[in-house]
Amino acid sequence: MIPQSFIQDLLNRVDIVDVVGRYVQLKKGGANFMGLCPFHNEKSPSFTVSPTKQFYHCFGCGAHGTAIGFLIEYSGMGFVEAVKDLAQNVGMVVPEAEDRLPPAQRAEHQAKSMALSEAMTQACDYYRQQLRHAERAKNYLIGRGLTGEIAARYGMGYAPDGWDGLRSVFPDYEVEALVESGLVIDKAEEEGANRKRYDRFRDRIMFPIRNTKGQVIGFGGRVLDNGEPKYLNSPETPLFQKGSELYGLFEARQAIREAGYALVTEGYMDVVALAQLGFPQAVATLGTACTPIHVQKLLRQTDQVIFSFDGDKAGRRAARRALEASLPHAGDNKVIKFLFLPTEHDPDSYIRELGTEAFEKQVQDAMPLSQFLLKEAVGDNDLGTPEGRARAQFDAKPLLQALPPSSLRLQIVRSLAQITESTPAEIEALFELAQPISHVRAPPPRTKRAAPQGLERQIMRLLVSHPVLAAEMDQAALDIAAHLAPERAEMLIQLVTMSREMGAQANFAILAEMLRSTGSDFDPLIAEIAAEPESDVALARLELAGAIRQTKMQALRDELQHLVAGGLVGEEAQARFRELTLQQDQLRRQAQAEMMQRG
């Protein structure tokens, strides 16, 4: 858990204009910066970045947030990953509960990571430069139908056929970073203490693998002839874990948003060939089976993922592993499909022979996850016999247990029950599914609090815009919470408490980020404030005082009416009436004084 104090300090140090400007071309427009929204298609700019609020807002699609929120939304990073990325850029080290390393050792680890990253960048530049003069490699790519534009977009290069070509880039060829990054192999000889170093990649087309920040973290190298292995990947390193990265995701992010889906293929050449042929939304796993982390990364970018595999046995096995990886993340608002091409085709050959429209039709007609799951469960089992139906249920059990409780799971349960001559309730009981949902249940209680209205909304809006005002509210001002409905009182107290905890650093962006982590109750207010020019804190202070006073006046009027309706019987009621009348007079005098102050 990252401390909120660190998040505040981080947001005070980063400049959202610099962060967004890395990914979106921004132009100055008045007090703000404008650009084309990266979250939806548009031809005229409606995306604004406010340097004073440290907030972005799109008037077209409503997207808004802080620098942290932008990285999460744009790059598909998790919250912690986005915080670490921003922190690294401003020289901060994120404190972590499980991180018990001394500061000096942590700094050493960070320096080593930067050295590895720098080595990978230099090697990538070297391989790209070598490709310009490697006619054999260029002819191979041309023969595969690739243009120089696509090769440049994906940063493709060539590793020369020499044992130590990287020595020209790294004069200190013995530096440890070359081995730790996987660029060089350091092999001890069987006899003696002499060591032999040589480049891992030789005479291969090079595919740089980038993380969500665009940094090169590994390489895939394809042999030019019939040598083995056909593809050689970087080993696991502190920068690169195959089970967590997808080739081409960095380059495909915008295309995925525009297409509305991500197309997952089996290899590097599939990705670049599909981009060449009009499908730049393609990515690939890196010589390993699809993992739940891969699926999670993709579903941060889009609500629809389509896996494309060859129709042979190997393709079916890969599809099965992708199915198993997808199940924990499948839900009612996500679409996961499986596309199987004829055994004689890969995506490249299919499009070149049958055309783009034919491939698009294949994508549209891809098999939904539910259908593929049932197909895998049934297999070759004979559903005409009790044994065959029982075996189908047995094979389906681990798959259904991996699915989260949802309407999708219920639909699959119903389909399985029908083909195996059971009931949904029997399937759920037999499979011991968490939170069975086939029986009728009352709808869950509404957890989102009702939106504040009128003066309540005005007060909360002013406090969200200028959280420093919360520190100025005395107990008498806070007493208005007692006159509000319990839900709104709770929201006001939460708002004031969080604002005061931020202290002198309190500002709109930091408070918005803290409120985002607690739920969406305040999101409409945040979106509204983000879309408007910065308001003056002095005027806001007067407006807040007026709104609090009006709320108190309304409470006084209500209580006075209640006393009058009761006939003012008894000394206690009469004394309370005089006390309330006196409070009314005091509030009126305050209002007159403030009007004179404004005048």
Note the main attributes of this structure.
DNA Primase, Chain A, single chain, 5 domains, alpha+beta, DNA primase DNAg catalytic core, N-terminal domain, 5-stranded mixed β-sheet, TOPRIM_DnaG_bac, metal-binding, about 600 residues, Dna Topoisomerase Vi A Subunit, Chain: A, domain 2
Structural description of this entry:
- By secondary structure, the chain is an alpha+beta fold.
- The protein folds into 5 domains: 4-89, Alpha-Beta Complex (DNA Primase, Chain A), CATH 3.90.580.10; 104-240, DNA primase DNAg catalytic core, N-terminal domain (Alpha-Beta Complex), CATH 3.90.980; 244-364, Dna Topoisomerase Vi A Subunit, Chain: A, domain 2 (3-Layer(aba) Sandwich), CATH 3.40.1360.10; 375-431, DnaG, RNA polymerase domain, helical bundle (Pheromone ER-1, Up-down Bundle), CATH 1.20.50.20; 454-598, DNAb Helicase, Chain A.
- The chain has 26 helices and 16 strands.
- The strands form 4 sheets. A 5-stranded antiparallel β-sheet has the order 1-2-3-4-5. A 5-stranded mixed β-sheet has the order 13-12-14-15-16.
- A hairpin with a 2-residue loop joins strand 1 (27-29) and strand 2 (32-35).
- The longest helix has 30 residues, at 103-132.
- The protein starts with a helix and ends with a helix.
- Residues 189-193 and 440-447 have low confidence and may be disordered.
